[in-house]
Amino acid sequence: MGAENPLLQFEPGLMIWTIIVFLLTLVVLGRIAWKPLLQNLDAREKKIHDALTQAEKAREEAEAAIAEARRESREALRRSEEMVAEAKADAERLRERMITEAKVESQRVVQDGLRQLEAEQRLAMQEIRRHAADLAIQAASKLIRSSLDERQQRELVDRFLDEVPSGSKTVH
Hints:
It contains two helices and no strands. It has 172 residues and is mostly helical. Helix 1 crosses helix 2. It has one domain.
């Protein structure tokens, strides 16, 4: 076996120097590379944690805002239903008042009409009595031409008409 591979041979001096260089590299990398690398990883982890915390807080705030909006929406709906119910009640009260006023007005119109009809009836009866008196006077004057004067005839007719019913019965 004549030629052995020099990399596979054990050399204690080379091994010590390799360990020393490795340890120095490890120390240098630890101070120069690992420390900043770990700090960056910690900072990144903190940023991620903060972002997750803020996201959770934002989610909770959004849920609270949604709940508040729903509550306000229900409250607004309740108020609008109350307003509609109140408007319906007001409309019903107005309708009832208008019906009552219309009934009162119609009764007043009927009463006014009846009073007017009675007044016209009285006037018509007076006119009929006057005509009847005139007719009676004319008839009586033809019968009694010379025995009574006009004043006496008028008195006689008035007494006769006073004895006649006044016609206060309503005509239908």
